[in-house]
Amino acid sequence: MKRPIILHPDARLKKVCDPVPDLSDELRALADDMLETMYDAPGIGLAAPQVGVMSRLVVLDCVKGEGEAPRPLVMFNPVVLDTSAERSVYEEGCLSIPDQYADVERPAEVRVGWIDRDGTPQEEDFSGLWATCVQHEIDHLDGKLFIDYLKPLKRQLITRKMVKLKRERARV
Fold first, then answer.
1. What residues contact residue 77 under an 8 Å CB cut-off, 6+ apart?
2. Bridge-partner residues for 43, per DSSP?
3. Residue positions annotated with a catalytic role
4. With a threshold of 0.90, does the pTM exceed it?
5. Computed from CA positions of residues 135, 27, 11, 8, in that sequence, does the dihedral angle turn out positive or negative?
6. Which of 60, 73, 97, 152 is 20 to 30 A (C-alpha) from 141?
7. Angle, alpha carbons 68-30-11 (nearest 5°)
8. What are the E-state strand segments in 1-150?
9. What is the pLDDT of residues 19-58, one digit of tens each?
């Protein structure tokens, strides 16, 4: 089931999410809904607070090549365990901040630990787009948006555009 995506500015996007204490069928169904919502948007990552659920859950799939098999990842309680000293810059966007993009610098490689949908602990090293995406989504769980990395003026400009967009959508 597709879920509505919350748009910035919204207080829920600035809150730190609660850890998932135990996996339930309800949480697995939420993960499935989030994947469907993400693919439909279309996007490469989605965090639970973006659909109004304040739990530490993210989904992502950064496979973008024609004919490549998708690789959906569901991460409960993801945590960055290690980061590289090397940095990379990607132009980031966000489903909660549609049509707004900016260069963000982050560690080029990260090791992430999480619980998968079966309750099994996982660890994996990510680089490139995957590293950027997983860091972006984990930031959402900590109440941080990609625009928080920008200079104040640029951040305010994007926020004003989003307020205007939300006003326009409310009229429809």
1. 19, 20, 56, 114, 115
2. none
3. 137
4. yes
5. positive
6. 152
7. 105
8. 45-47, 57-60, 73-83, 87-94, 97-107, 109-115, 121-127
9. 999 999 999 999 999 999 999 999 999 999 999 999 999 9
If 0-12 CB within 10 Å is exposed, 13-18 middle and 19+ buried, where does residue 152 land? exposed
Residue 15 structure tokens: 């809150």
Asked whether 111 and 160 are in contact (CB, 8 A), the reply is: no
Peptide bond into 19 cis (omega under 30): no
What is the spatial distance between Cα 128 and Cα 149, in angstroms, rounded to a whole number? 19
Q: Which amino acid is at 69?
A: A
The pair of structure tokens assigned to 120 is 């099994």
For tokens 């003026």, the residue is 153
Q: Which CATH architecture has domain 11-171?
A: Alpha-Beta Complex (3.90)
The first and second tokens of residue 97, run together, are: 């901040």
Residues recorded for the chain: 172
Sketch the domain layout of the chain as residue ranges: 11-171
Local structure of 157: helix, strand or coil: helix
| 9 preceded by a cis bond (ω within 30 of 0) | yes
On whether the CB atoms of residues 60 and 54 are closer than 8 A, the answer is: no
